Amino acid sequence: MNKFLRTVAKIFMLVTLTLLVTACGKEADNDYKIIDKVNHSRSLLYMSCTEEGLFYMANDQLLHYVTVSTGEDMIYCFDPICKHEPVSSDNPDSSCMAAGYVDKTRIAYHNSFVYFFVSDLFKHKIYKMDISSGVRELVTELPFDCEINCIVFEEDYVYYTAVIREEEEDGINLKRTYDMVEVNLKDGKYRMITKLGEKIGCNNFLFDVFEQTLFVRTSGNYEYHFYVIDLESLDIKYELNNEEYKQRSFHGVYDCESYYYAANDGKEFGIYNITTGATNVLWEKGLERESLSICYGAGGKMYYSLYNSETKTIKDFLYDEANDTTWDLTQKCEELGIFFYDVYRGMFIRHLYDESGEDIIGKSVVSEASILGVQ
Is 349 exposed, middle or buried (0-12, 13-18, 19+ CB in 10 A)? Predict the structure, then answer.
């Protein structure tokens, strides 16, 4: 894979927001396991991992599925004689099971359903499709738009960013307010859960949910704020202002009292407990020319990349707390074109390129156990 393209892909993942392996430290134990929390998943934009593969919306505007066992990429339609026509303004009602919608659509997989988030300026709808039967049904229609940088599921609820648009007094321009929304997937009811958009004028949320606790970073007016919110009472349990946040920026949930942090200067990352103030440093900068490029984690796993300013290269690592092991993923990430790691599903996602190596023609997925050589 083109090294420049890989670097760009890595940077894109950081902004939004992603094997022959040598282990550092002690050897991994034989009872190695991925995170066992199947009711929680996090999806990004047009792709979403399952326990056995990857759903994504391809360039043909159709839903594709890639199996981790065979690597086969298929249009997710059960009809053997279907022409697989995508929707368009001229063909808004395609009969193909894999077709999306005319309006902007994001997808996410959760508990045997693919969810479609279909939005326009003033409203959006959520549909769900049973992956066994292909049957779709409307979950709910909500009176505001959604801006989905990520989607988080927790049990029977889904969390994402709502965009409320209202006309200005001039009748021309639109005022936008952002907030976090929680939707009950069983009855379609919703609630706004932060009101932070009005409070600080934020326009972007980076968040995760763990056992009725919301961890959310907001940004707006060139400032960051961070909150930990109890989802039952909606009380703010913990908050950081802009300067404080720079010292302990949010990079994933560890448990309901702790999160993965990175120092603003890129010199360290670790786990910070919001109750005790205790810090567990997992990595510290060794070489002056080396800096933290990407890091995110969950449930005892931490994926991170180090950028070397002298050689202009990136090295990739996965830290496994249960085995106290750091895996060097650099060689296989380079060979396979890995650009994202789903820490909850234990899946590495890669781009597939055409013969020129320049244009992306699809995606593939590789299991964590396979890449680490422990299955």
Answer: buried
Residue 101 to residue 40: CA distance in whole angstroms: 26
3-state secondary structure of 155: coil
* pLDDT tens string 274-319: 999 999 988 888 777 788 877 888 878 888 888 888 888 889 999 8
**Average pLDDT of the segment spanning 193-204:** 60
DSSP 245: H
What is this structure's pTM? Answer: 0.83
Q: Containing H/E element for 252? A: strand 249-255
How does the average pLDDT of the chain come out, rounded? Answer: 80
Rounded to whole angstroms, the Cα distance separating 116 from 87 reads 14
Q: What share of the chain is helix, strand, coil (3-state, %, to 5)?
A: 10, 50, 40
Residues 6+ apart with CB under 8 A from 292: 262, 266, 267, 268, 269, 283, 285, 304, 305, 306, 307
Give 11's pLDDT tier (boundaries 50, 70, 90). Answer: very low
Phi-psi region of 171 (alpha: psi -120 to 50; beta: other; left: phi over 0): left
Who's near 285: CB < 8 A, 6+ residues apart? 266, 267, 268, 291, 292
Helices and strands in the chain: count of H runs, count of E runs: 5, 30
More confident residue, 91 or 189: 189
Q: What angle do CA 343, 272, 244 make, to 5 degrees?
A: 115
Is the CA virtual torsion 329, 55, 122, 90 positive or negative?
positive
CA separation for the pair 23, 340 (Å, rounded): 20
Angle value at C-alpha 316, between 313 and 322, nearest 5 degrees: 160
Q: Tell me the per-residue pLDDT of 210-252, one tens digit each, with 9 for 90 and over.
A: 888 999 888 777 788 899 999 999 888 999 988 888 888 998 8
Task: Give the containing element (helix H, strand E) for 89.
Answer: none
